[in-house]
């Protein structure tokens, strides 16, 4: 029988020194021992420095990050004691007085079980003591861990509840190299903060999480992404977001999209995501070419088998099944800039004679969900017989909003974060949310 969690104890190994007389301990050994104590004390001080800020911030500034979905088990460790709370009432259900020992979270008879002990609630919260850090499946995160049982009672979702600023510390260098210019990192912090709050406010009420940890929203790596430079960018932009004037005259957050390299000109959001806001129009970008990797700015030709293209398109968009097989792909929408163009709308013609239509960005990600081969919609599509060739590719990403390589290029020229953001989001204003 598994003992209650509150009774689980971590085995403690005692250090024994057979020192019964000073003659047994040479002088240099005693010096080494005292040095060891000093080093140990220094490590403890640094450990306290890992404490997580904003743990008492208002609920509206806590971010719910989906770490795992539809899983049957995960492994938790914490460097401090932690409590298990009922997710509905926030009342403590158990106390785990052990550290750095793996604890299995599983499903037992349709209930969430921690270290073999099942809980009646369909929603529990793991709340580690200071420094409020936990390890999930080998990765460290700040804040709390929420486990929510799925309706099938055979799986659960794992969600990181983390204050906004520590969340950003786990995002910035996952999205931009942390050795880039401080002003570029600050621009990234403000952009990521704005985007996160906008997505939370718009979509969070309809689900158990606000954002994912993947590039579907913005990449989040937790504690492993933190660095001195990153925290400097977060702290120096504390609470700063971007707003723009809405149709009703109010100034509100907007989806501050950003991407790796625009290829020379950013894109109007209406052509990519369907929303039309003043700060999300396309602007010329002469700054990213000198920063972006050569094969990201001008990417090589890639080929996709026609049968696989049809299969992927029909799987992603079942409405296209009436096409049967995709025989022709035509560009019927395109943004044209000086020396640069980007596909915006695609027509598909099937073997049945039926036609289908997709935004170019949706089309490319249906064929290449990773976005690592067809790096952007700035390309030409050529029929080569049994394959489709994507040629003359340029840029990396959707092209809307801030060009990250461009931001770095501007920062290298001495531009401030405010100037960078004003350039890529024209008409936007900076505000503080706290």
What does this protein look like?
The protein has 434 residues and is of the alpha+beta class. The chain has three domains: 55-164, no CATH class; 170-264 and 397-434, no CATH class; 294-394, no CATH class. Helices cover 25% and strands 30% of the residues. It is built from eleven helices and 26 strands. Strands 4-3-8-11-12-1-13 form a seven-stranded mixed β-sheet. Strands 7-6-5-2-9-10 form a six-stranded antiparallel β-sheet, with no helix packed on it. A three-stranded antiparallel β-sheet has the order 15-14-26. A hairpin with a 2-residue loop joins β5 (103-108) and β6 (111-114). α4 (182-203) crosses α11 (417-424). The longest helix is centred in the first third of the chain and has 22 residues, at 27-48. It is globular, with a radius of gyration of 26 Å.
């Amino acid at each position: 029988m598994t003992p209650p969690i509150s009774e689980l104890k971590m085995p403690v190994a005692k250090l024994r020194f057979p020192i019964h007389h000073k003659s047994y301990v040479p002088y240099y050994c005693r010096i080494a021992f005292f040095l060891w104590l000093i080093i140990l004390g220094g490590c403890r001080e640094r450990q306290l420095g890992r404490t997580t800020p904003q743990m008492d911030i208002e609920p509206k500034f806590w971010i719910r990050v989906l770490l795992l979905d539809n899983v049957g088990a995960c492994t938790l460790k914490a460097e401090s004691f932690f409590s298990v709370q009922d997710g509905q009432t926030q009342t403590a259900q158990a106390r785990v007085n052990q550290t750095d020992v793996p604890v299995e979270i599983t499903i037992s008879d349709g209930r969430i079980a921690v270290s073999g002990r099942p809980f009646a609630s369909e929603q529990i919260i793991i709340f580690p003591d200071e420094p409020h850090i936990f390890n999930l499946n080998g990765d460290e995160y700040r804040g709390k861990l929420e486990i929510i049982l799925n309706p099938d009672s055979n799986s659960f979702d794992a969600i990181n509840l983390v204050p906004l600023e520590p969340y950003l510390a786990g995002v910035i260098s996952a999205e931009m190299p942390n050795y880039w210019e401080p002003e570029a990192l600050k621009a990234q912090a403000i952009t990521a903060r704005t985007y996160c709050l906008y997505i939370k406010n718009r979509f969070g009420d309809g689900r158990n999480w606000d954002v994912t940890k993947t590039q579907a929203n913005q990449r989040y790596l937790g504690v492993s992404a933190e660095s001195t430079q990153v925290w400097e960018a977060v702290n120096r932009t504390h609470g700063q977001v971007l707003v723009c004037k809405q149709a009703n005259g109010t100034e509100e957050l907007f989806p501050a999209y950003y991407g790796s390299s625009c290829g020379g000109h950013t894109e109007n959001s209406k052509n990519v995501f369907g929303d039309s806001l003043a700060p999300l129009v396309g602007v010329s970008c002469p700054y990213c070419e000198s920063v972006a990797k050569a094969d990201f700015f001008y990417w090589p030709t890639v080929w996709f088998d026609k049968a696989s293209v049809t299969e992927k398109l029909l799987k992603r968009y079942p409405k296209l099944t009436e096409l049967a097989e995709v025989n022709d792909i035509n560009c019927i929408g395109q943004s044209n800039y000086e020396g640069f163009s980007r596909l915006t709308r695609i027509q598909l013609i099937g073997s049945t004679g039926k036609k289908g239509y997709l935004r170019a960005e949706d089309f490319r990600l249906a064929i290449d969900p990773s976005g690592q081969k067809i790096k952007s919609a700035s390309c030409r599509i050529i029929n080569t017989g049994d394959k489709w060739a994507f040629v003359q590719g340029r840029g990396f990403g959707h092209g809307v909003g801030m060009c990250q390589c461009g931001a770095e290029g501007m920062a290298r020229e001495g531009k401030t974060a405010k100037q960078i953001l004003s350039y890529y989001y024209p008409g936007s204003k900076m505000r503080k949310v706290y």
